[in-house]
Amino acid sequence: MNPRWSPHPAVSWRTVFGAWTVIASLAVLDRWASARVLATPPLSWRGVAPELSEWYLWALFTPGILRLGKRFPVTGPGARFNVVVHLAALLGISAIHAVVYAAAYAYIARNPIDVSFASFAWRVGISFVPFAMIVYSATVAIGVAASLSWQSRADAVRTAELTAQLARAETAALRAHLHPHFLFNSLHTVGSLVRESDRDAAVDVIAQLGDLLRELSRQDAPEQILLREELAFVRRYLAIERVRFEDRLRIVWRVSAAAEVAWVPRLLLQPLVENAIRHGIATSTTAGLVEITATQTADTLTISVRDDGPGPPQTNQSGVGLATTRARLAHTYGSAASLTLAHAHGGGAVATARLPYLTSPPR
Q1: For residues 146-164, average pLDDT
Q2: Which residue, 11, 63, 141, 233, has fewest beta-carbon neighbours within 10 Å?
C-alpha cells in the first residue's frame, strides 16, 4: 500500500470503495426485490440514482472521516472540543448529502416533489441526521479498530525484527569475546612449539585455529544448529587447548545420542567450556578435568560443563561469555531456559544450561 494515497494507515482506497459498493449493491437489490414483490414497474438506472448517490457519497466522505477520527479522538484530553469537531463534520456531510440526494431524486430519477427544491432538500437533510450520525460513528469506530489492529501487527513485526537483530548481535559479541583471548593463547602455543622444533604439532594447531576462525567469521551462519555441530566446534577448540596444557588437561564426554540431535543456539557450549578452562584449569596447578555432559529428559535438554578447579569465583559469578549466553537463552526461550554456575559435587565448578529439547529449529 502506498501511504501517500491511503486515507488511513490501515485502510486502502480499494477497501473503502469496495465496502461501500457492497452496501450500495444491497440497497439496490432491496429496491429490486420490493418492486418484484409489489409488482411495480421494474427499476431503471434513473430509479436507483438516489440510493447510489447516497452510498457513494459516503465512500467519498470516508477518507476524511477516518482522518478526523485519528486526529480528533473522542477520549482523553480535549475530548469535548473533538466531539464538537465531529458534530460540525456530521452537519456538513448531512448538508451535502441533502443537496445531492434531492438533486438525484428530483432531476435524475425524475420523481415529483410537492414543494420547492430548497424545502425538499431541507427536509431530506433534517431526516438524514440521525442515520448519518450512526454511519459516521460506525465509520470512525471501524477506522480506530483497523488502526489498532494495523499497529499491533506492525509492533509484532518490529519486535520480531529486533529480537532477530539482538540474537545476531549477541552471537557477534561472543565471537568478538572469543577472538582476543583464544587467539593470543593459540599463537603463544604455536610460538612455543616452534621454539621446541615441534613443527608438526605447530602446523596442526595452526590448521585447527584456521578452521575455528573460519567458522567464527561466517556471516551466513545460522543462529540455531544441531548440538552435534556445536560439539564438533568445541572439540576443535579443546584440541588446541590440549596442546597448550599438554597432558594436564583431561576431557570427559558424556553426551547421549538423543541430545546430539537437539537444536541449540550457535556458540552455546563454547563459552561454558572456555569458562571452565580460564577459571578452573588455567588458575590451578592441580586441576585438569573438564567434563562435558548433555542429556535429554522428557522435553528438557540439560548441558553441563564441570571442572575440578577452585570453584566459582566469589564475585562476578558470570563473565562476559556466560552473561551473554544467559541473555541469549532468555531471548530465545524466555523462562523455559536457564544458565547457572555453581559449586560442583566433589569440588570445582559446574555451569549448567537447561533449555527446551527441540528436534527442529525454533521459529
Answers
A1: 69
A2: 141
